[in-house]
Amino acid sequence: MSDPIDQALADAHRRFTDANPASRRQFDEQARYMPGANSRSVLFHAPFPLTIARGEGAALWDADGHRYADFIAEYTAGVYGHSAPEIRDAVIEAMRSGINLTGHNLLEGRLAKLICERFPQIEQLRFTNSGTEANLMALTAALHFTGRRKIVVFSGGYHGGVLGFGAGPLPTTVPFDFLVLPYNDAQLAREQIEKHGADVAAVLVEPMQGASGCIPGRPDFLQALRESATRVGALLVFDEVMTSRLAPHGLANQLGIRADLTTLGKYIGGGMSFGAFGGRADVMAQFDPRTGSLSHSGTFNNNVMTMAAGYAGLTQLFPPEAAGALAARGEAMRERLNALCAKEGVGLQFTGLGSLMNAHFVNGEVVRCEDLAGVDGRLRQLLFFHLLAQGIYASPRGFVVLSLPVADADIDRFVAAIGGFIGEHKALLPRAG
Q1: How far apart are CA 208 and CA 333, in angstroms?
Q2: Is the pLDDT reported for residue 1 higher than 60?
Q3: 306: left (phi > 0), else alpha (psi -120 to 50), else beta?
Q4: DSSP 3-state assignment of 107?
């Protein structure tokens, strides 16, 4: 007899394939020109990924005409949903004056001012095209400012396509001198940072790890990083590419911890390609072309579409009070989900903060990615296909994201879908313990 989880997953794959012939054709045709028909690895899932044809508000439609409630929101970049008229109008207006202006423009300064005022730890900043670039430039700034070479990072950390870590750097990670430590271990972090102190240029950390499963940083751990970095003369770099949306002025500000450098990305560009790095004025002065020693280029860093969309989004749709309200809605949803799982007696929990959360088939507190080593990945896939069948689009790894247009009815539908999943597959799930 075949394994029951394998059988359930095979049945889900079969139903998915039968229901999505247009997506299957699109995948097969594009695989001729792109490896795995793919230019962004996170979007692939077996047997083939959906092809999304359009979006509106908090809804998506695939190539076969199925409608989904969007609970992944472009992996946190889509906080405004799809085709928000305020964003669209701002981009169209900016384009009327030209797209590539080959110079300083009228839009970049006002967005820079707005970001610095919103995130008090950022005294000055520079724009990039992605969070990946922002983190690379922040690390470069730290290396040159301190004259040191070692960078402390944490297992499970993801800081962009070329800055990912498991127990060590991933094969695609840039070859800096990394010291990889376990996340949320304050004592070991203190010991190792101070042991290597003379060589440590930067400590790079997410206040909540996103890609590894929405694992919040413990306040004592993050404070230990601040204190140890200060003692050894290293720069503390907070990667807030995802987490800046989790509180009115960013997660670090809410925690009361001030980083030397902060990186941003995702939603702040209004749905366009965007990144930024900034912080202490004395560190950022290295990039001042009048007096500094570091060059930082990028044809599209200050492109007018991103500058316009970002300003419109932050001022019209996502001011600080909106960020706080969205975070509160996410907290309430996560509490409902965890109460449901506890009531049903299954080993399923949703970790996270605010409007970001992740489903994990595991008992006990999740404080670092190693706590998830025993999770059966097939259950994540089974949940993903169950949600699709219920008209809900989330991540195959269990990542769930709220956007502004998500309605209360959408949240009710999501919670009901989790209840239906437990009811259908309870015998396959770990029991609460």
Answers
A1: 18
A2: no
A3: alpha
A4: coil
Q: Which candidate, 201, 243, 245, places its Cα nearest to that of 222? A: 243
The pair phi, psi for residue 75, each rounded to 5°, is 50, 45
Q: What is the pLDDT of residues 10-20, one digit of tens each?
A: 999 999 999 99
Of 292, 293, 87, 334, which is closest to residue 208 (Cα–Cα)? 334
Q: Which residues of 323-358 are buried (b: 16+ CB within 10 A; e: fewer)?
A: bbebbebbbebbebbeebbeebebbbbbbbbbbbbb
The model's pLDDT over 326-383, given as tens digits with 9 standing for 90+, comes to 999 999 999 999 999 999 999 999 999 999 999 999 999 999 999 999 999 999 999 9
Q: Over 60: is that where the pLDDT of 192 sits?
A: yes
Cα–Cα separations (whole angstroms), residue 188 to 181, 185, 197, 396: 8, 6, 13, 33
Question: For position 147, what pLDDT does the model report?
Answer: 98
Q: Which single residue is written with the structure tokens 């969309």?
A: 309
Q: What is the pLDDT at residue 433? A: 84
Tell me, yes or no, if the pTM score tops 0.85.
yes
The residue type of 176 is F
Residue 345 near residue 358, CB atoms below 8 Å: no
Cβ atoms of residues 280 and 353 within 8 Å: no
pLDDT at site 2: 81
Give Cα 211 distance to the centre of its chain: 6
Phi, psi for residue 50 in degrees, rounded to 5: -65, 145
Q: Do residues 337 and 124 lie in contact, with contact meaning Cβ atoms separated by under 8 Å? A: no
> What does each C-alpha distance from 355 to 191, 199, 333, 415, 418 come to in angstroms?
34, 37, 9, 15, 17
Query: Longest Cα pair distance anywhere in the chain, in angstroms?
Result: 73
Give residue 100's pLDDT band: very low, low, confident or very high (50, 70, 90).
confident
Q: Name beta bridge partners: 261.
A: 237, 279
Average pLDDT over residues 287-291: 97
Q: Measure CA of the first residue to CA of the last residue in the chain; give whole Å.
A: 28
